[in-house]
Structures are given as C-alpha cells and as structure tokens.
Amino acid sequence: MNEEDVNVSLLRSAYAEWSSSKAANPQCWMELMADDAKLRSLTDGAPELSFTARRTSKGEIKAYLDDLLRDWEMVHAHMGEYLAQGDRVVVLGDVAWRNRATGKIAETRKVDVWRFRDGKAIGYEEFFDTAGAIAAATPDAAAGPAGVDPAVQARE
C-alpha cells in the first residue's frame, strides 16, 4: 500500500471503532496521534464549546476527548468519504451529538482534515455547524438547570 492508502486505512478503522462504540473508546484516536500532534476546531474554544480550544500535543488531545465526552453523548457518526492526497486525508460525513446538560441534539455535516507523518497523525482540524452546536449547548432561556422548566424544578 502507498502512504495515502495506509493513512485512509488507519482512519477508516478509527472512525469505525469510534462510531460502533458510540465514542466509548477514545483510545482509537490516541493510537493514531504523534506526540506533537496538533488539533484545531472551527469554534476554537468558544465559551459554549470550551473543549474545542486548540491543542498542541497528544496529551492535550486526550484532554480534548475527555472534555468532549464529559459534555456530549454521541447519537451517531457516519463518516463515509475519504479523500487523500500526499500526507493529508479529508474525511466527510454526518454526526449527531446530544449535549449532556441541555439534552439538545446537534446534528451536522462534518469535515475533518488530517495530516500524517510516518503513519501517525500530526494535525487534525474539524469543521461543523458551529451555530447548531452552540445552540444545542445553550440552555433555553425559560429553562432552569439541565433544561428543567423552572415550574417543575420548584415543585421538586
């Protein structure tokens, strides 16, 4: 296999594990990462999505995954298109995540851009509907904690 085919194969395996486990196995990503891997998200650490802050090492990327899974629950992830050229692979698909605090679901088209060196990921950038994700992470104005109606909360 050439370098492009190897990189696509690595990603297909990781995305398949991530999807089938409903994000229960973040180790599938950690095995791909070089120690100096960098992660960048379109929301770049927006307050509602603070886990998306830039990360500059494998350890920081582990923290990103921990924070993602603390705040969100995967509904589905179907990443089915892989476009490779040189050391880069672009992956396209559809994902849905439920915010644990609000119960709202963010469903979006997703584009991930990967860069590899010697069979390890050294760069990852993600693009998705940021407005939809922020809306899902934001409690309704009339709701109390975790989306609970204040009238219901007062009776508890």
TrEMBL record:
InterPro entries given for it? NTF2-like_dom_sf, SnoaL-like
The cross-references to SUPFAM superfamilies, in alphabetical order and at most eight, read: NTF2-like
Q: Which residues cross the membrane?
A: none
Q: Which domain of life is it from?
A: Bacteria
Q: Name one Pfam family in it.
A: SnoaL_2
Domain named SnoaL-like: residues? 23-121
Q: Which PANTHER family match?
A: BLR2505 PROTEIN
What name goes with this protein?
SnoaL-like domain-containing protein
- The species this protein belongs to is Methylobacterium frigidaeris
